[in-house]
Design a protein that fits this description.
With about 220 residues, the chain is an alpha/beta fold. About 50% of the residues lie in helices and about 15% in strands. Helix 9 runs antiparallel to helix 11 (about 200-215). The structure holds cobalt (II) ion.
Amino acid sequence: MKVLKHLFENNCKWASSQTQSDPDFFNRLLKQQSPEYLWIGCSDSRVPANEIVGLLPGELFVHRNVSNLVVKNDLNCLSVIQFAVEALKIKHIIVCGHYGCVGVKAVLDDAKIGLVDKWLDNLKPVKENFRDKLFQIKDDALRFKKLCELNVVEQVLNVCKTEIVQNAWQRNQNLSVHGWIYDIKDGLLQDLDVCITTLDEFEKARKDASLKILKSSK
Ligand code: CO
């Protein structure tokens, strides 16, 4: 007996429609994957990586976890980054957060959810570092949005701090790290303008990227 039958039915329909529109589709993927992008996003089911940027299987290497965190001792995330940068030679790493992120909200409100609180401890320093500025914002919804954005900037910097990315830049590998945010409300992405492509840019961004976020009043 096949459980979750409807998902297998969906799968058959999807596979045959892919083959119909492009008969060589699966043969090509079988030979190799050569994505140009690594996506680091939230596990949230409302933020499906490939769909929102219109990319097909084979075009986007993906890592997702609760609140799109890049933690320096997380073997899972670091392995993904290493494989993407050194084996696949991807050209762009996109850290994509989203407004309405439940993990960010839990940290903002000091809410307790369970085991995931331990994971979200990694996000707490972002709130603490900008506590004064964040709580000067009177509008609760805007404060929540700003912490979602600040979290993206922090995770972009965390990607840049990894030995993997630092070594890639040192050997002049073409690699950019981007910070984006997705709005569940309208399905649109926004570039947070923290694109970092060299060690020099990283040093500069370290000093002013977060402050820029807090200055913008949106
Ligand atoms: Co989220």
